[in-house]
Amino acid sequence: MEQRSLADVRALVKRHEKPARTGRKLGEEIFFRSLMNIASVLIVGVMGVILISIFYKGISTFSWSMLAEDMGSGFYLNRGGGIKNAIVGSLYLSLSATLLALVVGLACALCMNVYMVKFPKLLNAARFLLDLIWGVPSIIYGAFGFSLMVFLGVKTSLLAGIITVALFILPIMIRAIDEVMKTVPAGLSESVLSMGSTRSELSYKVYVRQCFPGIVTAVLLAFGRAVGDAASVLYVTGESSKTPTSLLDNATTLPVAIYNQINSPYAATQDKAYASAFVLTLIILIISLLSRYISKRYQKYRIY
Amino acid sequence: METQEMDAKMTGKKEMARPFEEEGIIRVDNLNLYAGKTHILKNVNIEIPKNKLTVILGPSGCGKTTLLKCMNRLTDLTPDIKVNGNIYIGDQPVFGSKTDIVALRRKMGLLSQRPFPLPMNIYNNIAYGLKLRGKYNRAELNDLVEYYLRQVNLWDEVKDRLRSPAVRLSIGQQQRLCLARGLAVNPDIILADEPTSALDPVSSEAIEKQFAALSKDFTLVMVTHVLRQARRIADYVIFMYLGEVIEMRPAQEFFEDPREEQTKKYLSGAFN
Fold first, then answer.
1. Which of the residues A3, A295, B23, B242 has the least number of beta carbons within 10 Å of its own beta carbon?
2. Is-above-0.90 flag for pTM?
3. Residues of A in contact with B74 (CB under 8 A)
4. Which residue of B has its CA nearest to A118?
5. In the sheet that B236-241 helps form, which strands lie side by side, from edge to edge?
6. What is the pLDDT of residues B158-180, one digit of tens each?
7. Is A194 in Cβ contact with B191 (below 8 Å)?
8. Cα(A26)–Cα(A3) distance, integer angstroms
9. A296 and B CB contact within 8 Å
């Protein structure tokens, strides 16, 4: 092919040129921009309505005594009592499950990103599998945990709940940390290894520092799922109207308590569900703020 | 006469006699490297003399960086790489199941194209390297950090902000910090992969000066594609083209009297 001259090319471009922002193009832009705006307003609006209704309805039925008293025998039958046992149960359950999942998940993500770099196919398969089990509904984990308990012949307990929830949030934890670790520049690993660091030093001294904000986000994500999930613990923790004192006690969690409160025939108890939801939202809010504060403090050391 | 004999052997490329008078500390022995099906390094036989600055020169994509990364086995991080032949540091083989690669890497610092400071503060960036090799008390650590920062002329610029994150430094300062960190591991050899390519002229000059000074006590191997830089600082030049070592000579001879056709072309700027 003969080479075109610049004048030629310019003439060609001019002949095919479309107007920049008139007519249909401008219409398209206005259409999609308004679509985006509507979507944003809708999402923020719906979130706002949910939060406001929880806060509004929750605060009106909320009382400090709720936080201080156990349910006792007749809580769902409007005979008084608080939700202390559910709050404590939820905190025990989700904090320990998150910790357990963090210990296992961090090691797993480090293994994938530091040790398995030589095997990209295996790594892809692992990521695919983790994504797959991420999507499995939590009730399946509950059922799995329950059948495992039956198999082992143990009774419902807080410990069984912790293990089940840890399993359920593990893929979330691993993949969230993994995604952050994927962004660590290869040059950093090379620099650190070429100083004569071992791979475990690279993992725990460099990767964990570099990815610290991401790890905090992963913990937050996992904790949010753990504290808010009712289905996975429905079968395995049993029910209790008292605050659990040992790992082998039965326990009630806030989401399950909310479910039961709404199912109650008494309107006053149903209203109290909002107070419980309010407490649950507050817990998540506090944990979010705390983790943001922690991750901000380490953010500044991140390279690139 | 002697050089001609040498060259005759070199063009034979199979068995290569010691090309330089000095004792070689890194010896690359018939190294072949394949990435997938691509043959990247072809029968590389070189010896790199001790306490000199050797420059590996060549156009982009000729395998310079790969050769450098073979020397401390960073190829371990890349999947699908096959290596034949071996490299010896002193008398220790780099590739081999019995090699303690971590111990071997401590003898070699690496300065990469872009600086990669550790995600810590300036002080700890140096202290990390020191702590890898042994335990020091606070005072010793302070002294050594100062010593290494002075070595790279960074101390005066950072002495008031040792506790601030290393990323806040400029790129040129970061590169010098990385050099100091590498030196803090107390290596014998410093490998540098185009260490000035991301830097401004002033910082580049600083690094070059540093290298010239360091070559008295360290073996330096520097990859570059900048001819003028090689001219300025090299003691020895290894010229590579398409995965092969074309010429390997003392710098002055290399630039004044290139023997091979490709070298002449490269030096006259025919490809770059």
1. A3
2. no
3. 190, 193-194
4. B79
5. B108-111, B189-193, B219-224, B53-57, B236-241, B244-250
6. 999 999 999 999 998 999 999 99
7. yes
8. 36
9. no
Inter-residue contact A113 to A207 (CB < 8 Å):
yes
A275 CB near a chain B CB, below 8 Å?
no
Please give the single-letter amino acid code of residue B40.
I
Contact yes or no for B72 and A194 at CB 8 A: yes
Say how far apart CA B227 and CA B269 lie, in whole Å: 9
User: In this complex, is the C-beta atom of A303 within 8 Å of any C-beta atom belonging to chain B?
Assistant: yes
Contacts 24+ apart (CB under 8 A), A109-113: A109/A173, A109/A174, A109/A177, A109/A178, A109/A181, A110/A181, A110/A203, A110/A204, A110/A207, A110/A208, A112/A174, A112/A178, A112/A181, A113/A178, A113/A181, A113/A182, A113/A184, A113/A207
pLDDT in tens, A265-277: 888 888 888 999 9
B102 and A198 in contact by Cβ < 8 A? yes
B68, B69, B80, B116: best to mutate for the A interface, most A CBs within 10 A: B116
**Other CB atoms closer than 10 Å to residue A76's CB: what's the count?**
19
Nearest beta carbon to residue B119 from set A118, A201, A302: A302
- d(CA A203, CA B162) in angstroms, rounded, equals 24
Q: Which amino acid is at B100?
A: D
Which of A194, A196, A300 lies at the smallest CB-CB distance from B165?
A: A300
Backbone angles phi, psi at B215, to 5 degrees: -70, -10
| Cβ-based contacts of B103 with chain A (< 8 Å) | 196
Q: Are B225 and B272 in contact (CB under 8 A)?
A: yes
Q: How far A169 CA lies from chain B's nearest CA (Å)?
A: 28
Q: What angle do CA B56, B58, B61 make, to 5 degrees?
A: 110
List the strands of the sheet with B92-93, edge to edge: B38-49, B24-35, B81-89, B92-93
- Phi and psi at A292, nearest 5°, equal -65, -40
| Check: complex ipTM more than 0.90 | no
Out of B72, B102, B118, whose CB is closest to A206? B118
Torsion sign over Cα B34, B39, B45, B51:
negative
Report CB contact under 8 Å: B109, A186: no
What is the distance between the terminal CA atoms of chain A, rounded to a whole angstrom?
Answer: 45
Per-residue pLDDT tens digits for B99-150: 888 888 988 889 999 999 999 999 999 999 888 888 889 999 999 999 999 9
Dig out the tokens for A141 from the structure.
Answer: 């984990």
Distance in angstroms (rounded) separating the CA atoms of residues A223 and A284:
8
Residue A198 C-beta-side C-alpha neighbours within 13 Å: 7
DSSP notation for B177-229: HHHHHHHHT--SEEEEESTTTTS-HHHHHHHHHHHHHHTTTSEEEEEE--HHH
Alpha-carbon distance of B223 to B214, in angstroms, equals: 16
Specify whether the CB–CB gap between B188 and B107 falls below 8 A: yes
What's phi and psi for A198, nearest 5 deg?
Answer: -80, 170
